[in-house]
Amino acid sequence: MYDLSCADVTKSFGNFTAVRNVSLDIPSGSFFSILGPSGCGKTTLMRMIAGFETPTSGDIRIKGDSVLTLPPNKRNVKMVFQHLALFPMMTVGENIAYGLRCRGESKSDIGPKVARVLDRVGLPGSEDKQIDQLSGGQKQRIAIARCMVLEPDVLLLDEPLGALDLKLREHMKIELKQLQHQFETTFLYITHDQSEALVMSDNVAVMNAGRFEQIGSPKALYDDPSSGFVAGFVGDSNVLSGTLTEVRGDEAQVMLDGGGLILGRVCDASKAGDKVEVFLRPESLRLGAGAEGTMMAGKVESLLFNGASSRVLIRVDDQLIEVADPEQSSSLVKGADAQVRWSADRARIFARRSA
Question: Which residue of 32, 240, 274, 354 could cross-link 278, Cys pair, CB 3.0 to 4.6 Å?
Answer without folding.
Answer: 240
